Every structure is written in structure tokens, then in C-alpha cells.
Amino acid sequence: MVFDFRSCLKCVSITVFAVAATSSAAQTVSTTSPDKRNRVDVVVSDKGALTFSVSRHQRALIEASPLGLILQNSSPFGTTLGERGAKLSASKTVTGEDRYTLPVGKSKDVRASYEESHISIETGQSELARLDLIVRAYNDGIAFRYVVPKQPGRSALNIQDEATSFRFSDDFDCHGLNQGRFENSFEGEHDAIKASQFRPFHLFQAPVVCRTGSAAFAIAESDPQDYPGAYYTGLNDGTPGLRVVLTPRKDNDPGARFRTRAAQLDVSTDFKTPWRVVMMGDTNGQLIESQLINTLASASMIADTSWIKPGLSAWDWWNGNAFPLPSPHNANGQTSGMNTATYKAYADFASEMGFEYLLIDEGWSVGSSVEPTANADVTRPKPEIDIAEIVRYAKAKGVGVWVWLQWQQLDAQLEEALATYERWGVKGVKVDFLNRNDQEIMAFYRRLLSKAADHKLMVNLHGAFPPAGLTRTWPNYMTQEGVLGAENNKWSQRITAKHNVTLAFTRGLLGPMDYTPGGFRHTTPADFPAKQSFVNPYVMTTRAAALAMYVVYESPFQMVSDSPPAYKKPDGSPEDGVDFLKRVPASWDETRFILGDIDECVVIARRSGDSWYVGAMTDGAKTISVPLNFLGRGAYKAVVWEDGDHPSSVKKSEIDVDAQQSLTLRLANSGGGVIQITPLKPVKKRR
């Protein structure tokens, strides 16, 4: 392998050493973050076992834990590289800095310094004589990835699994989502669990978030490329910690049992696995600010991103498309549904609200369904709906149109379909029911995002695996599901205020999530069962909490999910909080965690231009003081929306503030609040 340092903006402190083949002493390579708080040690023991450990503030978080790949071969359980007989042959340590700009997301300009070690291992196994390791330490975490060097005369290498494990130094308090199976929609509650309760039959998805008493960390991955996604299962010896489990390929022989193949690596060139990531901070809240997942991902593959635009979107599916059509769209008795008149009404609504988009969900194309069907044609709208006409009408009102697709139906006509949508003037596609993270689906992700970019189409994926940095590599990948979101209010009682708060500290750490907020029919948790409905559903949180989701939840393509009449009072005036929806951006220049704790409450501030937006959500009723020390110099006007006398009401107030002040928010049970803060005088731009 040739080490390429060109991506470093600065490279210093280069250390090179070789270890003699006869050496019997353990060898250690240490990598330390620029602020000296985080450290990862890679050790090859005197018996040739490859391990790593992680510490923060000189306190161990992860004790000596196995590293390595498991080859699929004739051995009943495969051959584990790094288990024994390994030797450290060379190491190089450098420092570097990554600077990049994100067109959309939770912060615009990112600057990340790191120390990096390149480690070469002689495995002692003839099937793969050498395995390289790249280790990085940042101020907000550590990461490592394996590199399989190019194998002359060989094109493929089959990987059964990884030996990668995380052996915790204590029985930490953690939160995680155990799916228990490989194929799923990546949705669920991120429940509290002690580290000692992780079991070998569990399959936790990223992130697994833990607290130590003096620190917090989250285990995740970044930059998957052509490699299966990971789950995390308990250690076989019952001690606190986790082990990586790779999702098997779909083309495995059903009788393979222990020898399933997770990945077939292309070794005609160097092959890099995803980064195994440990996000780190002093508190859970610090993890919310981290951009580590994006920083580790491959740089953008799209040169011109000027066409990628964030925005809020009107949407049909959640509310059931059941509302009286206004004039003139109700001519000749036309009713709402999957028809041209309805989506012209949505375009009027989006334009009136100042939203950038409207989304046409399932059912617009011939043969549309949630499964692949032989008669499906995603280039042909049903007779009652004219997509090109809707796009023309919406465009005249300043509104862009997205369309929904089932992934296999789209894949069967991918190039033709995307070219058709571009010709119609469609702005983006929502692709649904992927429900996989195996190696083969990764190829579809890459194919879709690449071809969509060729046709200047943005993308929203549902049934998608947790974010792993692909939104940096493909900035047209605006948002995704993989979250137990608002749709579940239609058929379950799982979308509680506690769940909503916990998402900010768990799923929300990794990247955008299409939770689909905007439900404007509110009731209490006690009254929710009696009012639950599939069409025009209720939510069991307050109006102010609904507004807060637009700040707390990152999603550059953000739904406004209720039907147009839900945003008006019976007299036709705007409902409480509609004025905030007309103001709130969908993408941010800066993000700050203010206060809160997992399962209890969260307060986040995000900046767009010169204005700040604060979102607060809580499980139980409480009064909180929000410090404004994130503001710059000068005076500001704060507009506050907080919980009113009942779940659907909002109290609005205005006050002049500065950075030395705090604002009090009174949050109801299952409640929330938002603040918009703007300078009283124009802010001088930095030269």
C-alpha cells in the first residue's frame, strides 16, 4: 500500500519504524487527538493478537478489544486475521486537518483537526499476508478502518465478518435500538440498557450511546461504500461491550450456516472498509454538535451543488389526503385524492406558506405499490394525475415537486425514469422500502445517488439504514428515514414525548432524519387512544413541541405533514404557530447544544445567517432557563412561542435580549417551545 498524505493540509510529526520478525515484545502505536483528551492505542501482543483501546481524559472507555477481519474459507468458522501470529511491520503517524463546506445540513463550514496513524500488519496467514489499519483521533472522537492491500493476480476476497469488538471498561448506562434481525426498516425506540445486558443474539443498529459518569460516547460507522452495514451484538463472554456483526449478502447459500459471506471485496486495488467510529464528549449533548460522521466520509462527488436547495414541503400521505378541495380545484364536484386538482391545491398551500416543495407520495404511477410488481411503470402517471401539469402549475407559484417511488420498481427503469423526471421538471425523488444494509444494497445507493445527481435530482430514502456520511459524499441525499417517526401516530401509541426527546441524543447524532413533523391536531397522552385515527391523525404532544421539531430535528428536506385545513382556524385565520413555520429554515450554518438530558428534555440552538432559532422539547412539565451566550455582540429581538393553556395553543411574546441574558421557557407536559432571535441592527460581515 502507498500512503497518500495529499489530503492533509498539514503533516508533521511523522514517525516510521519497522519491527523485526524475531521480536517477541508487545508493540503499541498510540494516536492522540489535537486537544490531547482522546487517545487510541493499537497493540500487537507478544502472541500476535491485534487489539485496540480507547481513553478520554486518561480514563479508559474501551479496554483492549479485538481487531481483525474474518475470511470466508474452508475453516468451519473462517480464518480470523489478527487473532494470533500477527506482527507489526511498519507505522507512520501524521497530523492533518480536513476543511469542507456542506451545501445543506446542521453546520455549513467544517474544520476538523486530527492525528492519524497508518499501521501495517503481517497477519501470518497465507490467504492475506498483510492487513493495514488507519487510525484517527479527533477532538470529538476516534475512528479506525481496515485496508486490504491490492492482491496481484487476484480480483476478489470473501469476508465472513469482522472480529472488531468494543470491550467496555465498566457497566455503563447506554441507549440503543435492538432490531434483532438483519432486514428491517431501521425504526424503533432507543431504549435504556446497561452494558452488561447486551447479549450475543442482539442486533443493535447505530448509534449505541453510553455514559461513563465523566464522559459520553457513541459507537457508529462512516463511509460504507461497497461494504455491508454493521450491527452490534453482545460479547460472547458476557462482559460489558459490543461486537461488530456484518449483514450477510442475500446471495448466500441457505445451507451456509456459520460460513455465510458478508462481503466480496474487490482487491484488484486497495480496499478500504468503513470507519468504525467512537464519537466522544464530556456529555451526551456535546455529541449532538459533532460532525465526525460526515468528516470521515468521502468528499463530495458533485462538483456543482448550486441546484441542491433545502426547504419545507407540503405532503399528502400522513394526513390521508382527506380534506375539502378549495375553489377552483373543486370544480365539477372534484374531491381530494390522487388527482391533478388535489396537488394544485397543495401547490397553492405551499406557496401561501412560503414552502419550497410539495411531495406526491405513493400511488401516482401505473402499478405503484410497496412491493415490486410486473406491471409497474414509474414513467407513466395514472390517467387521473398529470405530473408534468402539476410541476408546471407549482413552478409558477415558486414551488418544486418531488415524487415517491418503490425502490425496486425504480431500479428496473432507473436511467429512463430519472431522465423523465428531469424532463418533467421534478426536483427530487423519495425512494421507499429499502429495508436492507447488505453489500448489494450499497451498490444501489451509489447507483441511485450518482444517477440522480446526473439529472439534478435530490433524494430522500425511506427504510434506509442509519446515516453513515453519505450525505457528504452525495449532497443531493437530502434526508432519510430510519427513524420511528410521526407516521406511527396513525396506528400506535409509541410516539411519546420521551421518545421524541431521546431521538435528539441517539438517532439524531448521525445525520438527517425524515421524522415528518407538522401534525397540528393535538391531544394529551391520556386522551390519545380515543382520538387516534389513520386519516387526519392526532399527536400526543403540544403545538409548541411540534414547532420545536423543526429546530431539534435535522432534515434539509423537511415535511409539513398535516392537511392544508389543519393550519387554519375555523374562522380562516392561521392556527397558532403557523407564523413560525413560515419563518423557520430547513438547513443551518451552525448548531449548538444548550441543555438537556437523554429521555428528559433537549434544547438546541441553530443559526441560519444572522438569525438564531432555539428549539426545546420535554417529556415532563418544567421551567427552564435558556442562556443566550451563543449570540454575538449587540442587541437582538427574541420572538418566543411556548406552550399555552391547552395542547393546541401557543403563547407568543417578544423581548429585546443580548448575549448576557437568559430566557425562561415554561414547558408543559409533553411540551416544548421555540425562539427566533434576530439582530436589531444589521451584523457587520467579517472580511
In CATH, the topology of the domain at 15-296 is named Beta-galactosidase, Chain A, domain 5
Portion of residues within helices? 10-25%
Principal-axis shape: globular
CATH architectural grouping of the domain at 15-296 = Distorted Sandwich
The total strand number stands at 39
Low-confidence stretches: 1-23
Approximate strand percentage: 35-45%
Supply the helix-strand structural class: alpha+beta
Class of the domain at 15-296 in CATH?
Mainly Beta
Mean pLDDT level:
95
Terminal-residue CA separation? 43 Å
Task: Report the total helices.
Answer: 12
Biggest sheet layout: 11 strands, antiparallel
Q: Could you tell me the radius of gyration in angstroms? A: 26 Å
Description:
The chain has 687 residues and is of the alpha+beta class. Among the domains are: 15-296, Beta-galactosidase, Chain A, domain 5, CATH 2.70.98.10; 311-482, Alpha-Beta Barrel (TIM Barrel), CATH 3.20.20.70. The protein is built from 12 helices and 39 strands. The strands form 7 sheets. Strands 1, 8, 9, 10, 11, 14, 15, 16, 17, 21 and 22 form an 11-stranded antiparallel sheet that branches. Strands 2-3-4-5-13-19-18 form a 7-stranded antiparallel sheet, with no helix packed on it. Helix 3 (340-353) links the parallel strand 23 and strand 24 (357-360). Helix 3 (340-353) runs parallel beside helix 4 (387-396). It is globular. It starts with 14 loop residues before the first strand and ends in an 8-residue tail after the last strand.
